[in-house]
Please model this.
Amino acid sequence: QVQLVESGGGLVQAGGSLSLSCAASGSIFNLGNMYWYRQAPGKQRELVAGITLGGSPNYADSVKGRFAISRDKAKTTMYLQMNSLKPEDTAVYYCAASRKFTVTVDFWGQGTQVTVSS
Model:
């Protein structure tokens, strides 16, 4: 099993920045791609960004050019730098991960709240 713990959420004004972190522990030898999802009240959970084991990122159109995903050299900590935040970015942000060589999400963090005030 892999445990994921997010940190770094909070309250910020529109146009501001926040940085999220996700630390993986446990069976990290089995850790593959990692992802950031978010879920706003009354909405479905959506994929925000993902990063492969090799470090290739991809982003939802809604955050391209504003968010940056990265991973440390040990591949066990993932980051999300969020700039030019908008009120519609308000959500609970979840860290997620796949086992190696799979694309389905196998592990979830507990989530961290990001609130952007207008």
